[in-house]
Amino acid sequence: MSKPQLLLLPWLLFFMIFADLFSSSNGDVGTAARYSPPYLPTACYRNDMSQFPTNNLFGSAGEGIWDNAASCGRRYLVRCISSASVQRACIPGVTIQIKIVDRAASSVSQPSSQGTTMVLSETAFSMIANASLLPLPLLQWLLFILTHLSSFSTGDVGTAAQYSPPYLPSACYGNDVSQFPTNNLFASASEGIWDNGASCGRQYLVRCISASEQGICVTGVTIPITIVDREVTSISLPSTSGTTMALSETAFALIADLSANEINIEFQQ
């Protein structure tokens, strides 16, 4: 398909997954659009801006999940997993946490498309998709897999360091780089989660929750990482010894400032 033909497409489809916080269940399929400021007043909180997450990762609920306003304040994990019409539209490996703050049908700002399951704020949308590849005049629909749970569980709390290349050989895969995720979101496991090598290939959701200095964590961002090595034997030493896991530079940079040697994390397999 030529570029002019691509630009004439009346809509764009994305495959995304969003689930209540730290859930990985499969769910129903829906759609999403995006919307721009102003965001106040809202059906959930009127003009109370204090109810909005400070990182601006929020959304408005479509009628399918509005649930007579019971959806107000619900939190979801959202990630873009592929695009049906625009290559490289998704930002791989990034999962964000969004909060429902409004009703899409009555929001003061109109969504880019009507009748979708969810409408994401501009900030939320741009963190998981390359907005520059998506012409604004087009109807921008996002295809979702939705899991609606009545409650959510939190993960374990631990610590994470960072480590730099070279990453090979590893205790899990030797010199086989094909076993590493192509998005470079991986980690080496400490003795506490090494499990005699059984942790190799395990995947965790990881987010930064605090650090020794303020402003280190990138709030609202959760990433999936794969264990590819053993921390105590990795060819590259971690920035701090004895942490729960050592994240690759790419993984660490997505959830925290690289100036930090150690962060506190929440993680769940």
Describe the structure.
This protein is mainly beta. The protein folds into two domains: 27-128, Beta Barrel (Barwin-like endoglucanases), CATH 2.40.40; 156-268, RlpA-like domain (Barwin-like endoglucanases, Beta Barrel), CATH 2.40.40. Helices cover 10% and strands 34% of the residues. It has five helices and 15 strands. It has helices at residues 3-7, 63-66, 122-128, 191-194, 249-255; strands at residues 11-12, 14-20, 28-35, 58-61, 75-83, 95-103, 118-121, 139-140, 142-147, 156-163, 186-189, 203-210, 221-230, 245-248, 263-268. Strands 2, 3, 4, 5, 6, 7, 9, 10, 11, 12, 13, 14 and 15 form a 13-stranded mixed β-sheet that branches.
Helix and strand arrangement:
Elements: H1 3-7, E1 11-12, E2 14-20, E3 28-35, E4 58-61, H2 63-66, E5 75-83, E6 95-103, E7 118-121, H3 122-128, E8 139-140, E9 142-147, E10 156-163, E11 186-189, H4 191-194, E12 203-210, E13 221-230, E14 245-248, H5 249-255, E15 263-268
Parallel strand pairs: 1-8, 2-9, 3-7, 4-6, 10-14, 11-13
Antiparallel strand pairs: 2-5, 3-9, 4-7, 5-6, 6-13, 10-15, 11-14, 12-13, 12-15
Domain Expansin-like EG45: 41-129, 169-269
Organism: Macleaya cordata (Five-seeded plume-poppy)
InterPro entries: Expansin/allergen_DPBB_dom (IPR007112), RlpA-like_sf (IPR036908)
